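batch_manifest entry 22 of 60
target: Protein arginine methyltransferase NDUFAF7, mitochondrial
source organism: Dorcoceras hygrometricum
requested by: lab member K.T.
priority: normal
notes from requester: please return tokens only, no post-processing; we will run our own comparison against the previous entry in this batch. if the run fails, retry once and flag.
--- input ---
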Amino acid sequence: MLRRALLQASSRRLFSSSSPILESLRRFPTSSSSFFSSSSQIPDSLFVEQSENAKEPSTPAATIAIDRSALYHPPEHSHEPNDDSELVKHLKNIIKFRGGPITIAEYMEEVLTNPKAGFYINRDVFGADGDFITSPEVSQMFGEMIGVWAMCLWQQMGQPDRVNLVELGPGRGTLLADLLRGASKFKNFTNALQIHMVECSPALQKLQYQNLKCVTEAVADQNAEKRTISRLAATPVSWHAMFEQVPTGLPTIIIAHEFYDALPVHQFQKHYLIHDFPQKASRGWCEKMVDVAENSSFRFVLSPQPTPATLYLMQRLKWAKTDEIVKINNVEVCPKAMDLTREIAERIGSDGGGALIIDYGLDGVVSDSLQAIRKHKFVDILDNPGSADLSAYVDFSSIRHSAEEISGVSVHGPMTQSQFLGSLGINFRVEALLDNCNEEQAESLRTGYWRLVGEGEAPFWEGPDEKTPIGMGSRYLAMAIVNKKEVRNSMGTFFSSLLGGSAAEAEPMAAGTSRVNAFHSSQRWKLHYDSAKQLNKLIVVDFSASWCGPCKFIEPVFHEMSTKYTDVDFVKIDVDELSFGVQAMPTFVLLKQGKEVERIMGAKKDELENKIRKHREAPKFAA
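--- output ---
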């Protein structure tokens, strides 16, 4: 289960000749094209001397000396068939004409997005018949939950009439298709959307066009630009090769799902002059490169001198903890992820909105995670480049630090995908879908649900072992970058409670307290509050909004529990009736003898039911 790629390799290079990074590197000593292998250094002065062993004639003969030093010596031609693919030949030519190895990032970029032979460019690599499966391909619920998040964010932004909805690396377009289907009944939201797909693959652009049910409108003016409309929600759609091509000036909601993991990474390895303890001494960090071995196969080598990406490594290590650095011998750095994050943060800070990043990764230094997947199986990274997907773990800590360098935004998370989808109400959604499907569909729903939020092998699986559903609920993380002003004014209750993290727990709690205190002024609230005080009964009050996605998912479960626990009073108060700025977040308050004993924010069915059981069984409060 993995990825999609992002930036077109030919569109730009990480370091141009005018790059300030290269400018600052001029102070580094230069070297020849020699490089370290994993075990030894090739000396600069090493040459191969060739000589002829022809015997001298016994009788001296008249000879003419000819200086052949300047003559052209054509390369020897082998008549054996060359099985190298066009991409392999291209990579070897780059290494040959450059006079030395290329970085892993350059190798990765060519393998994935080479305009003629890149892995993502001319094929459909997603789904059961492709090379890997992504969350949107697992279940429609994933796209629906992202739609709930986007609608709630739009609500907190003040429901602007126009908003850019951007997806980076949309794959087949499945996520946005499910999002638009689920949101199609909320006309005010879908009417505001301007959809922008950042995709460099022509083949995937065609698939996205089909899956979004797009049509191109005819225009009367031949000079006017034709508009593409998705019939799923009558929203305009446009495509761009790079994020910077997306128009500015509008509030922007950005979705980056399994996008960052395909960004090219640089790998660094700590090189030791002395390998034996206690004298083990480090020579420093050397970048891992890709070279061509004597047998014409690809191999890894180490750079003997600092490379341009070394500056990004130094920045990354500056963010790391000391004990973290001591333990590692390998580090992966993704300059494009760091630069792209700053670009996203600047856009959100100036135009408003938010970005949601979901990917598999770590909240800390990533050491050696680069992997290749072909037909759902791991293969050697250097084997037949272009035939397998390359991806690496996302360094969420690096993303957070990069975004926090930009003023006007705040970063929340990461949290696990399971926690994120659970807070949005996916458990209620799956139960609602199960009520309206046959057994075969139910099995598919349960399997998809487990893959999205479960951990490890599905305990209910009775099919073949090789097809056992594996949960990715804890392997995938979610992080958000939002406009700081919007969070402070109106988004704190909903968004921070979903993606607040331990450092921001005070914010959602304060917002929740303020909200519940406001409810106390409601006459209906006062009525039930007094009832709880007089009747020694447990009362569960559900504060929800009719326009709130998670609140809608709660309704059938709330009804089910009211039938199940007949000795408990269940009361629903629609917050649309209350005269204050409500947040799009379901809130449950449990009352016993006039005292608030629990408050639960978010669509958390299991937590709610556990609290109900706890307070039903607990002894009654003393008067």
